[in-house]
Specification:
- The structure is a single chain.
- By secondary structure, the protein is of the alpha+beta class.
- It has one domain: 3-Layer(aba) Sandwich (Aminopeptidase).
- It contains five helices and eight strands.
- It has an eight-stranded mixed beta sheet, sandwiched between helices.
- A hairpin with a 5-residue loop joins strand 3 and strand 4.
- The longest helix has 17 residues.
- It is globular.
Length: 210
């Protein structure tokens, strides 16, 4: 299962295929800070990263995808669909790791659009979730920018790397998706960017759940 966009492709994570590029973009001591809010990492050596990539590659839930830049053909991050509940038609996007080269790019936004489109349009799901550490301001801001609605804080929800995590919950519903999809597609249109790649207009901001 591969999702093709204008700027990135999402393809099943493969340690052999994507390991070298991911090591260069998110591995080693220089990239340790990228893993602050992740349940795993950082990875000081290639062997430790490869071991985790191999485990992620065979996982079905979470189901991991490499985020591959179409221009270079290199993987610059990964993301997953997880906590799949077919009975209730609910799924979560998570395990999102963006390299510095991917962050704040057209491709970063497009990767999230492609996964949401799959959840709603292909799977026919009712609810799409985003969860993060309540202290992770960047992730919370990203959820709102991408059209998720904030639902609240689950206190003392998890222990991550031995430290308490209060979890901020966000969701997007199937009734909201048509407007979100149209806004993603408007924003991702090449006409929305100047020749040097700057956005002409921002993604629309939606009201959060009271």
């Amino acid at each position: 299962m591969t999702f093709e966009g204008q700027y990135v492709m999402l393809e099943p994570l493969d340690a052999d295929r994507h390991g070298e590029a991911l090591w260069e973009s998110v591995g080693g001591d220089a990239n340790a800070a990228l893993w602050q809010w992740m349940p795993d990492g950082p990875f000081p050596d290639r062997a430790s990263l490869d071991a985790v990539l191999r485990a992620k590659a065979v996982s079905k839930d979470p189901l991991f995808f490499a985020i591959v830049d179409r221009a270079s053909g290199l993987a610059h991050g990964h993301a997953s669909l997880m906590r799949d509940e077919p009975k209730h038609r609910v799924i979560e996007v998570g395990g999102i790791m963006y390299s510095p080269a991917l962050r704040r790019t057209h491709g970063a936004t497009e990767a999230m659009y492609l996964l949401a489109r799959h959840a709603f349009d292909a799977m026919g799901y009712r609810r799409y979730e985003w969860k993060c550490n309540a202290l992770n301001g960047h992730s919370r801001a990203a959820a709102l920018r991408l059209g998720f609605a904030f639902e609240g804080i689950f206190r003392q929800h998890m222990l991550i790397k031995g430290v308490n995590r209060d979890t901020a919950w966000f969701s997007m519903l199937d009734s909201e998706w048509p407007a979100r999809r149209a806004e993603f597609e408007r924003w991702l249109d090449p006409a929305n960017f100047t020749p040097d790649g700057r956005q002409r207009t921002r993604l629309a901001q939606y009201s959060s759940v009271p």
